[in-house]
Amino acid sequence: MKKTFDCVKMKQEIQQQLLEKMRDMTPEEQRQFTEDTILSNPKLARFWKPPKPGMERVGNLPRRTG
Q: What is the value of pTM for the model shown?
């Protein structure tokens, strides 16, 4: 059976396009770009939940103990 659609190839192409768009952005600009992109799409915006205060960056995550 011949494939007419390659999902992995499409994902890689989209990811490459996004990396090129965000290449010269600061981390904050990248975060804002991603959030704006999600919120501009009604299907994705339904699932968007803003981060909890103080948890915007991975560096702010609490350390595991034990």
A: 0.59
